[in-house]
Amino acid sequence: MKQRIVTAVIAASVFLPIVIYGRWPFLVLTYILATVGLFELIRMKRISLFSFPSIVSFLALWLFLYPYEHMINIWILVVGLFLLLIYTVISKNAFTFDDVAFMIVAVLYVGVGFYSFVQVREAGLSYIFYALFLIWATDSGAYFVGRAFGKRKLWEHISPNKTVEGAIGGVLCALVVVSVYEWLSPFAPSFLMLLIATVILSVFGQLGDLVESAFKRHYGVKDSGAILPGHGGILDRFDSLLFVLPILHLFYLIA
């Protein structure tokens, strides 16, 4: 526990000032986080870091993350897809169609989440802190309510410690924290819509956590990485945000 707290304090002391400042340091931070996240997925799949598919995937991710206009990002992924498909022929199916699908989904999973991180930051600090508070409240509420009242397993084969009661407690805790945040620093055009969005995002955040757990169970690893002592890898810490941020970005565009 002590190691987790020390790591969290150090990470927050680096992460939050850069998020607040924004601009190019924030973009650089996003690129670093996304790169490490993709590396963790590729390592789970046991594909060589210096192989042609890995190099193509990293290049596709880096190009995808840049805030282009006119949907250039999609065409970057299409080019990457074609290159990987061609490589299945060159490698005589040593690198298979299934491997291509994994690499493209990995780039999309990491890329869309961190691309949305940049876009939500551009929308304003209020939205970024809303997402951070929401995830923190959901995770904390799910943990403490689950420990105190949890009886029914939420998804035992994927994450044995999570309970239905904890999941509900996470949503309720998120609603309380977000309501206080809105009261102290109003930013939402409609309080009712904010509450509805909070419920949806809290649920998606918990689903993101379960998806990451499913990855790890499928590939037989405890943590996605070890870059954060006591916490695991980047994907272990950003699994919920990778689901929440794209939905929050969509809500912002619609509003």
UniProtKB/TrEMBL annotation:
PANTHER family: PHOSPHATIDATE CYTIDYLYLTRANSFERASE (PTHR46382). Its main location: membrane. The chain crosses the membrane at residues 5-20, 49-66, 72-90, 97-118, 124-145, 166-184, 190-208. It comes from Anoxybacillus tengchongensis. One of its GO terms (biological process) is CDP-diacylglycerol biosynthetic process. Keywords: Cell membrane, Lipid biosynthesis, Lipid metabolism, Membrane, Nucleotidyltransferase, Phospholipid biosynthesis, Phospholipid metabolism, Transferase, Transmembrane, Transmembrane helix. It holds the Pfam family CTP_transf_1. It is an enzyme of class 2 (transferase). This is Phosphatidate cytidylyltransferase. Its EC number is 2.7.7.41. It catalyses: a 1,2-diacyl-sn-glycero-3-phosphate + CTP + H(+) = a CDP-1,2-diacyl-sn-glycerol + diphosphate. It is found in: Cell membrane. It is a multi-pass membrane protein. Pathway: Phospholipid metabolism; CDP-diacylglycerol biosynthesis; CDP-diacylglycerol from sn-glycerol 3-phosphate: step 3/3; Lipid metabolism. It comes from the Bacteria. Belongs to the CDS family. GO terms for cellular component: plasma membrane. GO terms for molecular function: phosphatidate cytidylyltransferase activity.
